[in-house]
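Exercise 7b. Backbone tokens:
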């Protein structure tokens, strides 16, 4: 993980040893997403809340067919339009002269008036007002409340007195810090899996465990997830264009390694291959180029679900520990001839503007 927050020894209980520094430095080959995202400042509540920007409307669609010479457009929503707005329907351009209601606007043709079918996209080109025009009420920027919950990760290290005293050929086998390190690595992998796959579970009582939601869950809940379709450059380019129109500005394709063959088999004009990978089985694609000029970085992560192509911005993901609950080792009561230690940490993740992300599901 990329460390951006700061934790001091004052944040750790007296009976525990802070091992978060060692945990934060772990980076496994099979956990690339967790390796890439930043570890931010700690959160203060088991329910971590934030606000996402709700994108202002930049387009709508026709709700009914339009006949050339008409004076009104029926639209799916008139939100974002006002008197003076310039809109494009197909190759035609119109100026809005009045807002009738939430689905009808009065218009006058500016260029290339023509017939248009229901469902055609209506793009907002801007606003043109007359001199000394009166003030108009505009729409306001809205926000949407999001939240995730913290999840408790724990493990135990137990060694008998004899095991700790016995000298072995492999010193780490009887080395308590070495055992803790191995458990930390497993905890890191478990956090990586949770970051990708977990559904969010926020129980109402302490009797049930909290489960932090992962990127796949947030995309399914908030993102653009069209019906499955054949994986072709035309279909995938149309999907990427929709994400761009929704406001995504950095494109990262995240896939399970088993899906790399979908991209490596594409025409060479659409992809950039990792240097030297052609000699090692399936070529590894580093970049994908859409016909609309969108350039995507391509990443593989075994923690991602196979058969799905997720597109998002990893810089908008942040892993956080609950204050005072970063990974630490606690001494457990000694009830036998040995040593028992509990490895414990409580973490969540913040996914900013997940409504801009998307998932393409190949039908075959």
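Sequence design result:
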């Amino acid at each position: 993980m990329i460390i951006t927050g700061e934790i001091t020894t004052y944040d750790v209980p007296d009976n525990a040893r802070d091992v978060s520094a060692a945990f934060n430095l772990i980076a496994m080959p099979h956990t690339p997403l967790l390796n890439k995202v930043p570890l931010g400042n700690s959160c203060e509540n088991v329910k971590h809340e934030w606000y996402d920007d709700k994108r202002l409307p930049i387009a709508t669609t026709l709700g009914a067919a339009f006949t050339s010479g008409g004076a009104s457009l029926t639209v799916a929503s008139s939100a974002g339009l006002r008197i003076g707005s310039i809109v494009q329907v197909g190759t035609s351009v119109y100026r809005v002269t009045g807002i009738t209601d939430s689905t009808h606007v009065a218009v006058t043709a500016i260029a290339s008036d023509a017939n248009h079918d229901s469902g055609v996209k209506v793009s907002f080109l801007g606003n043109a007002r007359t001199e000394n025009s009166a003030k108009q009420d505009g729409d306001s920027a809205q926000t949407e409340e999001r939240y995730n919950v913290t999840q408790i990760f724990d493990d135990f290290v137990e060694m008998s007195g004899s095991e700790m005293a016995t000298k072995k050929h492999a010193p780490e086998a009887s080395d308590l810090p070495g055992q803790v390190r191995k458990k930390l690595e497993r905890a890191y992998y478990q956090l990586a899996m949770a970051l990708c796959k977990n559904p969010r579970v926020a129980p109402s009582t302490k009797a049930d465990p909290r489960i932090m939601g992962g990127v796949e869950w947030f995309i399914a809940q908030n993102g653009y997830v069209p019906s499955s379709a054949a994986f072709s450059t035309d279909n995938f380019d149309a999907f990427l264009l929709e994400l761009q129109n929704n406001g995504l500005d950095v494109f990262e394709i995240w896939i399970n390694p088993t899906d790399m063959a979908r991209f490596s088999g594409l025409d060479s004009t659409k992809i950039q291959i990792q240097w030297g990978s052609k000699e090692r089985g399936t070529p590894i694609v580093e970049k994908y180029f859409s016909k609309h000029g969108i350039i995507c970085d391509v990443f593989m992560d075994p923690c991602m679900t196979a058969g799905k192509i997720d597109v998002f911005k990893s810089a908008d993901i942040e892993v956080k520990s609950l204050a005072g609950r970063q990974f630490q080792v606690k001494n457990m009561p000694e009830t036998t001839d040995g040593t028992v230690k509990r490895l414990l940490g409580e973490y969540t993740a913040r996914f900013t503007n997940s409504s801009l992300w998307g998932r393409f599901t190949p039908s075959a």
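Instructor comment: The longest strand covers residues 338-351. The radius of gyration is 27 Å.
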